[in-house]
Every structure is written in structure tokens, then in C-alpha cells.
């Protein structure tokens, strides 16, 4: 119905809640099958125009050109990486867009919570839970790559060891990896974190100050993006820099 952002949001929220990434392997077939059924129902109800539209959707799904690609988006808390990822996801082909893997949502899922529910368990942010979250993120990214589906890897990526594992896995699987770092001024980060409401991230000002204390600048090999720009502008920068638009 020409609402790509809504389609991407539903697609990603469902997979985030269920982790049923096996659906990606058969996604074009499932999409075409469902559109065909809806088209038949529309034709039976006398709506030829609607039936024709569903046929177009089914034919487009069968012709989907898959793409193995990882787009890593990093930055400190409050940099806006999740907002940029949400905008970028529906832009990447094939429809309904990239699999959006956000560490905050994955962590909540591992502890049996919805993305917007706060994790009160202190163990959720201990080193062991951090390592488990990133292992799960990379595992799901691997599955997407095997299914021929693009993935956005949205996390702070502040630890060098975690970035090294990302690079090593991408190299081992021969996955094209694009790395972008949203670099915002500390004042901007503090203001954004202080203003947060109802988001997946539980990071507060104390967490941010800890990140700033160990921060050593944009990591080598990552493309820096100006964090003071709007999320829409940053998403457009990524699309332009990496030529990611739908072919």
C-alpha cells in the first residue's frame, strides 16, 4: 500500500520479538504467496484494480534481487544511531528493507523484555551480558548474510575487541562491510540522553559519562558522520557514500 517505512517497521519489530530469522530465506516466496492470496480475494470481491496491484506485488517479490551486506552504525549513547538506522532500513533493497539489528533490542529480548521496557536487572549490563548481546547480534547478522539479506548492525561498537570480531567475521564470510560512526559533541550527547523517553536504550547520563571517559576518537576504518545533522541527513549521507539506494 505504498507505506515502505511502516512495512519495514512491522518486519523488523516482528523479527526482533521472535528471532525467526529463518523467514528471511523464504521471504520472497512468502511475500509472493501472501500477495497472490490477497489478490485472489480482491478479485473474488470484484475489485480488479486491487487484484492487479497485488499481482504486481507478487511478481516483484518473485523477482527480488537479494543482497549480502552489513552496514555497521556505531556511536556513543545519544548519537542518534538507532534513529538513523530506522530511517535507513526501508531504503535498502530488497523490500521491505534491511534487517535492523539493534543491540538494545537484542539485550531486552535476551532478558525477556520488550524494547521499551526498562531492564532493572543489574546483570543485564554486566560484561558477560554485553558479550552475550554482541554474540547474538553477530549470529543474527550471519544468518541474514546466509539468507542473502542486508543487515544494519546498530550498536555503540565502543570496544575494540568487539569491532575486531565484527571485522574478522565479515572477512571470514566474505560479507561486504560498511562502517559508519556518528560523531557528536559531548554537549549534544548529554542533552539527547537527558531528553530520552520510551526508547529501547536504558543508557543514562552516568553510562554516557563512562563512555566519554574511555573514548579515544572515531575508530580507524570507520567513516565519521557529523552527529549534529538531522537523522534524515545522516541516512542520506550513508546512502550516497555507499551507493545503497534501490537498484
* Form type: elongated
Number of strands: 5
Share of β-strand residues = 5-15%
The Cα radius of gyration reads 19 Å
Judged by helices, strands and strand pairing, the structural class is alpha/beta
How much helix, percentage-wise, in residues?
A: 40-55%
String of helices and strands: HHHEHEHHEHEHHEH
Number of helices: 10
Pick out the low-confidence regions: none
Widest sheet: strand ordering? 2-3-1-4-5
The end-to-end distance, rounded to whole angstroms, is 20 Å
Largest sheet: 5 strands, parallel
Structure in words:
The chain is α/β, with parallel strands linked by helices and 247 residues long. Strands 2-3-1-4-5 form a 5-stranded parallel sheet, sandwiched between helices. The mean pLDDT is 90. It has helices spanning 4-18, 27-44, 48-62, 81-88, 103-110, 127-146, 160-173, 186-195, 205-214, 231-242; strands at 70-74, 99-102, 151-154, 177-183, 223-226. Helix content is 53%, strand content 10%. The chain has 10 helices and 5 strands.
Amino acid at each position: 500500500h505504498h507505506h515502505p517505512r511502516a512495512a519495514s517497521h512491522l518486519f523488523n519489530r516482528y523479527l526482533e520479538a521472535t528471532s525467526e530469522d529463518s523467514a528471511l530465506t523464504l521471504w520472497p516466496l512468502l511475500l509472493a504467496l501472501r500477495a497472490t492470496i490477497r489478490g485472489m480475494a480482491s478479485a473474488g470481491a470484484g475489485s480488479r484494480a486491487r487484484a492487479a496491484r497485488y499481482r504486481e506485488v507478487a511478481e516483484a517479490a518473485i523477482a527480488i534481487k537479494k543482497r549480502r551486506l552489513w552496514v555497521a552504525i556505531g556511536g556513543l549513547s545519544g548519537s542518534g544511531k538507532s534513529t538513523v538506522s530506522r530511517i535507513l532500513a526501508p531504503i535498502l533493497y530488497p523490500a521491505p528493507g534491511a534487517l535492523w539489528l539493534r543491540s538494545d533490542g537484542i539485550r531486552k529480548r535476551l532478558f525477556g523484555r520488550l524494547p521499551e521496557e526498562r531492564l532493572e536487572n543489574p546483570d543485564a549490563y554486566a560484561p558477560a551480558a554485553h558479550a552475550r548481546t554482541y554474540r547474538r547480534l553477530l549470529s543474527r547478522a550471519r544468518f541474514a548474510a546466509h539468507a542473502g539479506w542486508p543487515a544494519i548492525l546498530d550498536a555503540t561498537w565502543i570496544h575494540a575487541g568487539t569491532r575486531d570480531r565484527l571485522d574478522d567475521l565479515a572477512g571470514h564470510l566474505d560479507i561486504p562491510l560498511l562502517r559508519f560512526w556518528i560523531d557528536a559533541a559531548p554537549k549534544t550527547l548529554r542533552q539527547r540522553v537527558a531528553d530520552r523517553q520510551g526508547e529501547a536504550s536504558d543508557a543514562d547520563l552516568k553510562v554516557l559519562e563512562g563512555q566519554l571517559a574511555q573514548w579515544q576518537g572515531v575508530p580507524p576504518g570507520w567513516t565519521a558522520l557529523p552527529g549534529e545533522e538531522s537523522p534524515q541527513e545522516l541516512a542520506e549521507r550513508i546512502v550516497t557514500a555507499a551507493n545503497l539506494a534501490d537498484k
